[in-house]
From TrEMBL:
The lineage of its organism: Bacteria, Pseudomonadati, Thermodesulfobacteriota, Desulfuromonadia, Geobacterales. Residues 188-394 form the Histidine kinase domain. Gene3D superfamilies: 1.10.287.130, 3.40.50.2300, Histidine kinase-like ATPase, C-terminal domain (3.30.565.10). This is histidine kinase. InterPro entries: CheY-like_superfamily (IPR011006), HATPase_C_sf (IPR036890), HATPase_dom (IPR003594), His_kinase_dom (IPR005467), HisK_dim/P_dom (IPR003661), HisK_dim/P_sf (IPR036097), Sig_transdc_His_kin-like_C (IPR004358), Sig_transdc_resp-reg_receiver (IPR001789).
């Protein structure tokens, strides 16, 4: 069963250079409830379409000036939602095919039957209603598909962010477990090693008092030096695993950085290293043990200087946002190999010929003590950047 299209609020424009056709067709359509506009030529018709947006145009094929076929093409190009039925006095099949190809939805031969005209108009308006509805549905479908695609992208980003956050937490938990295990180990090692070391030191010093041979004294000094080195390693091991005695004071991070840089002045000058201080905004003082915090910068500066050839650049960036202090230490060394990045904070991990591999473990332990975070922000052939984040209200 066909659904009838209500003529209410349906606008029809008639374009014809014959006044009789305009008047007659207007009467027929108005009597059936349509709102009717009329134009004697195509140019006037275009103005009415532009202003009134009729659903349908009845367009004469033979007109002076702009002919019906040209007008049809213009209407279909400019106003795709306005449908066109052609009036023609020529009933050849070639003309019909040409009109339909140009975008007409039907054509009516003159003279026409009133009922046939009404039926043709209702049929085309029904087609228009369905096609306009389909276009709206397709547009809504495209909008919904676009939203779904956007949601999918956002979901993928969130999943990636959550995955990375989870991996980071897992890595931090693993590191915390390593430090905890190191703490248990180091406490036992310190007790078991330091007692014999003290005895060795005492007996060697006693032996030295009874030796006059310079060569033998030299050997004894080397023994004592190695004992000191073992004791230093044990102390560093303890520092990496648990907090030594500390004293909280008001500490200005910028001043602490400058003091530590000054301690490295001989190495910096010797290697012609350019130091760049990018202190963007100075954070207020925090409660901390200055000796502990100094260890962070000693280890990072020492690593950077070691990695850089002469004429390198050491950059320290400092800023805060009222909640956190952010410090970046960058160098122009050769970078950390990707395969080593996951292990750099592990106790005893080192790629140097000399060194205990405990420096960054100590740094990590201190940063964690103050409720902060540390990580490698960038590392490639142009250098390495470490980023330290410390809360202004340090959890010391």
């Amino acid at each position: 069963m066909k659904t009838k299209v209500s003529p209410k609020n349906q606008n029809i424009l008639i374009i014809d250079d014959e006044k009789v056709i305009l008047d007659l067709t207007s009467i027929i359509l108005r009597n059936r409830g349509y709102t009717v506009f009329t134009a004697g030529d195509a140019a006037d018709g275009f103005d009415i379409i532009e202003n009134s947006h009729p659903e349908l145009v009845l367009l004469d094929y033979m007109m002076p000036g702009i002919d019906g076929l040209t007008a049809l093409k213009i209407i279909r190009e400019r106003y795709p939602d306005t449908y066109v039925i052609m009036f023609t006095g020529k009933g050849s099949e070639e003309i019909a095919v040409e009109l339909m190809k140009a975008g007409a939805y039907d054509y009516i031969l003159k003279p026409f039957n009133n009922q046939d005209l009404a039926d043709r108009i209702e049929h085309v308006l029904r087609i228009r209603e369905v096609e306009i509805s389909n276009k709206a549905l397709m547009k809504e479908r495209e909008r919904l598909l676009g939203e779904i695609e956007l949601w999918n992208r956002q979901l993928e980003i969130r999943v990636q962010e959550k995955t990375e956050a989870l991996q980071k937490v897992q890595a931090e938990n693993v590191q915390a477990e390593k430090l905890a295990s190191l703490g248990y180990l180091s406490a036992g090692v310190a007790h078991e090693i330091r007692n014999p070391l003290n005895s060795i030191t005492l007996f060697v010093q006693l032996i030295k008092t009874g030796v006059d041979d310079p060569e033998l004294c030299g050997y004894i000094d080397k023994i004592l030096k190695e004992v000191d080195r073992i004791d230093t390693i044990v102390r560093k091991l303890l520092d990496a695993s648990k907090r030594p005695r500390f004293e909280l004071k008001e500490v200005m991070i910028d001043q602490l950085i400058d003091q530590t840089l000054e301690a490295f002045r001989p190495q910096i000058d010797q290697n012609r290293i350019v130091v760049e201080r990018d202190f963007r905004n100075i954070p207020p003082a925090i409660q901390a043990d200055p000796t502990e915090l100094e260890q962070i910068f000693i280890n990072l500066f020492l690593n950077s200087i070691h990695e850089m050839p002469k004429d390198g650049r050491l950059k320290i960036q400092l800023e805060h946002d009222g909640k956190e202090i952010v410090i970046r230490v960058s160098d122009t060394g050769g970078g950390i190999p990707k395969e080593n990045l996951a292990n750099i904070f592990d106790p005893f991990f080192t790629t140097k010929n000399k060194g205990s591999g405990l420096g960054l473990s100590v740094v990590l332990r201190i940063v964690k003590t103050y409720g902060g975070k540390i990580g490698v922000e960038k590392s490639d052939k142009t250098g390495t950047t470490f980023c330290i984040v410390l809360p202004l209200q340090a959890a010391a």
